[in-house]
Design goal:
It is a single chain. This protein is α+β, with helices and mostly antiparallel strands. The protein is built from 24 helices and 30 strands. The strands form 5 sheets. A 10-stranded mixed sheet has the order 3-4-5-12-13-14-15-23-24-26, covered by helices on one side. Helix 4 packs across helix 8, helix 15 runs antiparallel to helix 16 and helix 19 packs across helix 20. The longest helix has 28 residues.
Length: about 950
Amino acid sequence: MPPRTVMSTAAATAAVLALGVTLLAAAPQSGAAAAEPAPVTDYCQGQCDDILPPGQNGNATLVEILGNKAFGTHPAHSDDQIDRYDGLVAGHTALTDQKLTDFFNDASFGVPKDRVESVVSPRDDVTITRDKATGVPHIKGTTRYGTEFGAGYAAGQDRLWLMDLFRHIGRGQLTSFAGGALANQGLEQQFWPQAPYTEADLEAQVAYIRTHEGPRGEQAMADAQAYVDGINAYRDKSKNGRYFPGEYVLTGKIDAITNVGGIEPFELTDLISIASVVGGQFGGGGGGEVQAALSLLSAQQKYGVAEGTKVWESFRQRNDPEAVLTVHDGTAFPYAGKPDKARGTALPDAGSVTAEPLVFDRTGSAGTDRKAPVKAPANLRKAQGIYDDGVIPEGSLPGSGSGAQKRGMSNALLVSGKHTASGNPIAVFGPQTGYFAPQLMMLQELQGPGISARGVSFAGVGMYVQMGRGQDYAWSATSAGQDITDTYAVELCEPDGSAPTKDSTHYRYRGTCTAMETLERTNSWKPTVADSTAEGSYRMQVRRTHYGVVTHRATVGGKPVAYTSLRSTYGHEADSIIGFQMFNDPDLVKDAASFQRAASNIDYAFNWFYADSRTAAYYNSGMNPVRAAGVDPALPVKAERAYEWKDFDPAANTAAYTSFAEHPNSSGQDYYVSWNNKQAEGYSAAGFGLGAVHRGDLLDDRVAKLVAEGGVTRASLTRVMAEAGVTDLRGEQLLPELLKVIRSRPVTDPELSGVVQQLESWRAAGSQRRENGSGSHAYAHADAVRVMDAWWPRLVEAEFRPGLGDDLYRELTAALATDESPAASHGASGAHSGSAFQYGWWGFVDKDLRKVLGQPVEGPLARTYCGGGDLGGCRDALLASLKEAAAQPATQVYPGDDTCKAGDQWCADAIVHRALGGISQKTIHWQNRPTYQQVVEFPAHR
């Protein structure tokens, strides 16, 4: 069992006593409400703000959807935060503390009487008050059950359709639910194999929390049941009242005239399936060892084993000494490092790796985008085909889409009180989860017995505020991505003793030839008004072993094996509910230390940040398995007992985990920044890309300067966040070195000289991707931006491909894409997603060019590549690629899509809130910024 489940008798007794009152109040009751709880003191005193575009309301009736399609109208509170969010691009330069609420919501507790828009009481022990400004639900319960019931009811009011989508995505049943659009097929084919569960598996996870997490586990499941009851109460009421989301009509679930049809009841197991989608995408880490092995083999084939390994390790950058760090005071937290002498590594034989097939028995339109539109009633034709491209367009969710990197996003900036004008810590932080309409998260305030918080929760798992503020503290998270997933090579066998093949469905487990478990999903669909995709079906199939789900087949030393992916959080998708429960408990979180202890109960890989009036602090959470001595976590390992995680129990997928103190943590450091960068010295990167240049540098450089100057305010910290959010990482960090190489001799070509001067002017102006005037939809230095976008992939190839060779260059770019500009259609969450410059070859280019220039480099690449290490040759290669890039017209650099015309640079970057329902939103200026964001400074404490 995880270490956190072990508690002393005294501690257990204290926990029972602390929770006794709320446990007694957990069951549904009718009759008079409990006594009114004591008033809650808001210690932020008007200095807490937040924002979540486009708006709070994520439900729309059929009439509202048709009005949006016909006339562009929007339901109330569905778009009233988008302009303030967008406005910060132009408004941040003149920002003051007094102007913050021009761009953020007032995140104070409660609603003044003159600002109340509505009050409903779905039970007599809870009220849901919504404010006029944003429509955010402020849920106040007199019993624990009532509070959580109200949270579920409000979630139904704001996100019913979205929650339904995500429970079906998690269960691998999206096409059967919402239609067979090719993007829907792709989405369920990517998500379900990561967390394939039977119904019994989901029920077992509910039972595990109840039986292994003590009184808090019992309370959590009681809270979750109350939350589900609230969702179902709204589901029934909206169906009977005919104000349910109109998507149910458009997808054929309910008849608009007769009201025949229904919305399936929600169950506790649905929360597990939703948690698997959310946690797996934003809180996972590691994996990818098969691709890492292929790139290592390619390096060894080119250079020989010893030199090839050295070259590969220099690109892998497990612990780059030049990487930007969150904990920058020199404290080291060794984890998942390269062993001195690796044991059990299972590299595949060259050319033997094949991906495990997933889809079988395709019929009709399966695997295609063939349409067969239905004859829609005249009154529905405006909404016909709204899901023809999928309910979630391909690549929009982090980790989905062809070639997309998983995980990442979100940022945090915190400054300790020693360096602020007030003497109190300041935080500007939030999760960067993509842009959707409605958002994946929803704002809420929860006040009830044992709960006091305001902030966001992912829809469908909103029993507690997951990121937000308490009475005298605030917290947020960024995806950490440390290595909690390993790849095992299981030896294949046949039960009759005959020779196995790569297709064998048995494997050796601790000496016994054991059958793989087969898990299946069969989905079918027919065209609807919303999705015109022709009728079709297919069957998804995965094989599951004691070492995880099979992902590839290969041979190792001539013997057939299956590569499996084992994630420490598999089978524990919702265990983190305990940590979230603690975050919301004002009797538990009283200071930085108690918050860090609460954060240690989050099993997913997140960086947690905390601020109150006295302290800024940090803690990295995650179920970090203790690996066997000598195992290299970056590569596949033999599935033998000697190489298993310490104390590994496959029945429950539990093991020994690293201790609280071994996780990166800090309290009171001068400042903290995080943009999914490296956490601390010794905390090894789980994949490629945490090197000398990272988008975290855009924050670190600016915050360090602020701290050096002193007198930091909420506005000044917000300004540097916003400035970093419109800055091109390549222009700020790499362009000076590129220009230094180019300017090592005069540029004699007049046209090329002009291009170089444009780039220099852009760099001198801050390398920003920003309008030349508010609302102009045209960038200042537009030509320089276009050239950089066209040049970067070309210059990387010109710099590295000749030296690496075609094969190794291909394998390394498969492990880490070279670019992720705002206009790219790949990356963590596809085009128009805001998030940019996380994954790329920035650090490789930086180290290589500095080596060519004769500058000092810590942790250099094993070889120098640009021009073979010759400055003149490097300059020639860069100039040739620059000339080619400069000649590429905007229509080719920005080819256009369903949102933008070819050549429209501003639009190619711009953020699009991808419609998950029937309501569309306007396109807004690009920002590399959290989706939900808080600006907080507590002047007082309990």
